[in-house]
Structures are given as structure tokens and as C-alpha cells.
Design goal:
It is a single chain. This protein is α+β, with helices and mostly antiparallel strands. It has 16 helices and 6 strands. The strands form 2 sheets. Strands 1-4-5-3 form a 4-stranded mixed sheet, with helices on both faces. A two-stranded antiparallel sheet has the order 2-6.
Length: 357
């Protein structure tokens, strides 16, 4: 049976409204509306819809897609997103859940390892508490994505090709999900991951809490989590220059502007020196890009999963076929996190991943 909810999902994922899908498929807007409201289409109509959306016909025959609780979805940059971008991102989340379920059936993944910090009002303390719980000490984090994964977060990539969508996260039952847009700089993605981590541990029981206060809290948490106060204070000179900031950003794997802001919040840069540093960083081109950037982080889980699947001669097209996804949707969800895969793959020693018999 044709599932009209899957038609709506595919349409939103492709960033189309009813009129846009009608134009692509050669069907009327009225027909699109009727089908999305539950009217069973004939074979010709289904074929046109599948071709217009570039989805296999079998995708529309599946069970109802899981509806993500949008009130519990935390977007990194909600104010700059259009409704169409938001719908496309949420649709990616739904597909990510289906892909996550599939990979969970095939492999044994790390279990979530979290504490509830919703009671904490000081994000500096919250970040330090989580670091202690995970046994990180004060050291810089070499791979934020890998850290999330080893603690049970299912991480997926977005390929929205827009600066308006940074990242979003949510809990599904007892499993945390994070979606990161690979469109921006590697440093930006690292901070996005830390920002979303705050929403997962500190805002879980209050929904997305899409308020400026919650976003400021997540930014403060991310800054504190990535750049621990004690480590920063112990390593920075008494008089900090722009060159010192550029050297420091490499250690803590953040953007130059984020590094300068952290130094300012810790009182290591006065208001005047912080303003001067921002002006100079802007003059050098660091306000909009990282002139000398870090290597983009990759996923430990997906590298190992793909190495195992490819060793069994299972390609991404075959993964897509098993899921009834178009191959480009599988690629957009994970390939931005993998980089080149050359087995054997080294992963965190705490990462356990085995095929389910």
C-alpha cells in the first residue's frame, strides 16, 4: 500500500512544497494534496512522484515514518532558518533514525553514557562536571565526533549546502542523536557538536527551549567544554597577542574568534584588547573563515562500519537498497563524517563495535 506520510517526508526532504512537486511531476496541485491527505494513487501517479522526488517506489510502501517530536529538537541556529530548510532538516532526522535503527540491528554500538545536568545553572560547572564524568581531565579533545560516539550518541551529517543550518540534536527514547552540517568550517562543526552536547545533557527535559537564554547557555557550555579554564589559564602568556590566539586555536581546535571570546570571558583579554583582537582577526580574514584550519573530524563508528561492510562487498548502493533509500540520502547522512576509508581503521580503544550475529 502507498504510504502518504512517506510522500510528505520525501517532498520535505527535497525542499519542495506542493506546487513545486506538482511542477516536477507533471501532476496537479490538487492531486498532490489529495495523495498527501491519504487518497490512494494509481501506478502512473506513483511512478511520476517517485521519479520527480528521485526516491525508489519501494520507499513509499514502508511503514509510517517515525514522527520526530519537533518540540524536543534543538536547532543550532533556528532564527536564520526558513521553514523549508527546517522541514528538510527534520526529514533528514527521520531518515537518520531509520538508518540508525538499521545499523543498530547489524552492529553492536556503544550504549549512551550520560548524566542529567538539567539542574545546573552554571554552564562552566556543567561542562567541568561532564568532563570529570567522562574522565577527560583538562586535556584538549582530539575528536569531538568520536567522543560523542564512544558515549553512545548517533552522529549523522547534513548536506544542506546552506549557512542557515548548523546542527540539531534530539533524544529518541534513550538514544541521543546529533546532526552536523558539513557545509561550514571544521572548527565550526567542532563547536556545533559541543553546543549540541549541552542541549542533550542540560536541556533534555525542557524540550528544545528555543530561547536566547538556552542558546547562550549552549554556547557557554561548548566554550567551557572545549577550552577548560584551568588549561587555558596555565598555557596563555600574561600579554596575549593575535599571534598567540592563532597558536592557541590550534591546540583547542576552535575558531580564532571563539578562542578570542573564551580568553575574554576568562578575563585574560580586557574589553579593549578583545575588541582590538577581533578587529585584527577580521582584517586577517578570520571573521568569516579559518585561514589556517584544522582537519575535519571524521566518525570512528562509520569508518569501522563501512570498513566491515565493504570487506563483505556491501556497497553504499546496497545499503540504500536495503533501506529503500535513494543512494544520495545515505551518502548525505554519513559520508560527510567518514573521509577516505582504508582498512584497518584505528578507533578509540574504548569503542566496541561488532557485527550482530
Amino acid at each position: 500500500m502507498f504510504n502518504h506520510k512517506r510522500l510528505s517526508l520525501a517532498r520535505k526532504r527535497r525542499g519542495l512544497n506542493g506546487k513545486g512537486l506538482a511542477e516536477r511531476s507533471g501532476l496537479s496541485v490538487v492531486t498532490i494534496s489529495r495523495v498527501e491527505n491519504g487518497e490512494t494513487p494509481d501506478a502512473e501517479t506513483i511512478s511520476r512522484l517517485a521519479k520527480a522526488l528521485r526516491y525508489p517506489v519501494e520507499f513509499f510502501e514502508g511503514d509510517d515514518p517515525e514522527e520526530i517530536d519537533t518540540s524536543a529538537v534543538s536547532f543550532r541556529n533556528l532564527t536564520k532558518m526558513s521553514a523549508r530548510e527546517r522541514d528538510a532538516s527534520i526529514a533528514a532526522g527521520t531518515l537518520g533514525v531509520e538508518l540508525g535503527d538499521w545499523i543498530g540491528r547489524e552492529f553492536s554500538l556503544p550504549e549512551p553514557n550520560f548524566i542529567d545536568l538539567s539542574y545546573e545553572t552554571d554552564m562552566e560547572v556543567a561542562a567541568r562536571t561532564l568532563r570529570q564524568y567522562w574522565g577527560l581531565g583538562e586535556k584538549p579533545i582530539s575528536n569531538m565526533i568520536g567522543l560523542l560516539e564512544v558515549n553512545g550518541v548517533k552522529v549523522f551529517s547534513l548536506s544542506e549546502q546552506t549557512a542557515s543550518v548548523d546542527a540539531f540534536s534530539f533524544w529518541r527514547d534513550e538514544t541521543p542523536y546529533v546532526f552536523l552540517n558539513t557545509y561550514k568550517s571544521a572548527e565550526h562543526s567542532v563547536f556545533d557538536a559541543a553546543h549540541e552536547l549541552c542541549h542533550l545533557v542540560a536541556h533534555r527535559h525542557v524540550g528544545a527551549q528555543r530561547s536566547p537564554i538556552a542558546e547562550r547557555e549552549a554556547n557557554a557550555f561548548g566554550s567551557s567544554f572545549l577550552m577548560p579554564a584551568a588549561d587555558v589559564r596555565s598555557r596563555m602568556p600574561s600579554f596575549i597577542t593575535v599571534d598567540d590566539i592563532l597558536a592557541a586555536k590550534k591546540r583547542w581546535r576552535v575558531s580564532a574568534m571563539a578562542m578570542a571570546y573564551r580568553l575574554h570571558t576568562l578575563g585574560l583579554l580586557s574589553d579593549w584588547r578583545y575588541k582590538s583582537a577581533c578587529i585584527e582577526l577580521g582584517r586577517r580574514g578570520y571573521r568569516t573563515a579559518e585561514k589556517v584550519g584544522i582537519e575535519r573530524e571524521t566518525s570512528a563508528v562509520w569508518k569501522k562500519v563501512l570498513a566491515q561492510l565493504w570487506a563483505e562487498r556491501t556497497t553504499k548502493d546496497e545499503i540504500a537498497t536495503q533501506l529503500n533509500f535513494p543512494p544520495d540520502e545515505v551518502e548525505s547522512l554519513i559520508w560527510g563524517l567518514t573521509g577516505p576509508v582504508q582498512p584497518p581503521v584505528r578507533v578509540d580503544s574504548r569503542m566496541t563495535l561488532r557485527a550482530v550475529e
